[in-house]
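DM from R.C. (forwarded with permission)

"hey, sorry to bug you on a friday — could you get me a structure for this? deadline for the figure draft is monday and I only need the backbone to look sensible"
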Amino acid sequence: MKQIEVQIMGQSYLLGCPDGGEPQLRDAVERVDAAMCKIRDAGKVKARDRIAVLASLNLAFDLAAQQAAAVAAPAAAPASTTTEPGEVDAKAAQLIQKLDQALAGDGHLL
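My reply, with the result:
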């Protein structure tokens, strides 16, 4: 196992990386950095830990949606049961809003 240095939202991290896994790890770092910067740049959330939680939830939601689509793809679903891209975005926005409300008065996660 080797260590690589990466940057996420301008902060350096030294991460352990299995042999041959550097391209996948760097791809994951890019996705996390992009997700966190997008939330930060929206200006509604300032705390780094809250940004990290919201970015993690966004990425997990996207992954779950992709996995559900992959499972549903072989079965021909009627057009009325397919989820439109706007519906997924709306559900994600509702989830983020609920999380933001739940964390708003907290000031810290734990």
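R.C.: lifesaver. The CA atoms of residues 86 and 92 lie 10 Å apart.
me: no worries. Confidence is low (pLDDT under 50) at residues 106-110.
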